[in-house]
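Sequence in, structure out. Go.
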Amino acid sequence: MAKPTEWATHYYGNYLLYYEIGRTEMIRQLGLTYRQLEDNGTLLPVHSVQIKYIAPAFYDDLLTLRTTLREYPGVSIKFEHEIFNPEGKLIIPAR
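Output:
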């Protein structure tokens, strides 16, 4: 993971890693693992991401990530991610 910037904010590229963690954990909560999906021939490549940076996340902030399944089933599965700061304010939504 990249280090925080000199302003003590998270590096913007880290959010993609957080979204992947959310996606993986959501699949786990549905009773499956990524490995099981792959073994059954189901692949989940990311083909696009839309991120809106409303406010920064600061180093040592305890962030909350909410991942929602927006669209399923079909040829593609669409996830929505929201990152909240310690005060509960939505700071970085993504689709």
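Check: The radius of gyration is 15 Å. Strands lie at 64-71, 78-84, 90-94.
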